[in-house]
Every structure is written in structure tokens, then in C-alpha cells.
TrEMBL record:
Name of the protein: YhfH-like protein
Source domain of life: Bacteria
InterPro entries in alphabetical order: YhfH-like
Pfam families named in the record: YhfH (PF14149)
Length: 41
């Protein structure tokens, strides 16, 4: 079962910024959806 979970996370698509569309360099399962340049927090 652990192999199935690992395979799931390996197969997630690249995460892209919701504002500019640039690829986000972080873990794909993270909740954030904006890149560092567009993040205003």
C-alpha cells in the first residue's frame, strides 16, 4: 500500500502559480497556489 501512495505523489502534475502560471518549485502536495513573486503575504 505504501508503494501506491508514493506512486500517487510521484504522478502529480507540476504545480503552477494561479496568478502568473509559472511553475512553482515546491512540493506538489502543498496547499499554496502562488509563486514567491506573486505571493503578497
Amino acid at each position: 500500500m505504501i508503494e501506491n501512495v508514493l506512486e500517487f505523489f510521484r504522478n502529480l502534475p507540476e504545480k503552477k502559480c494561479a496568478t502568473c502560471g509559472e511553475k512553482i518549485e515546491e512540493q506538489h502536495e502543498c496547499y499554496g497556489n502562488t509563486c514567491d513573486k506573486c505571493n503578497t503575504l
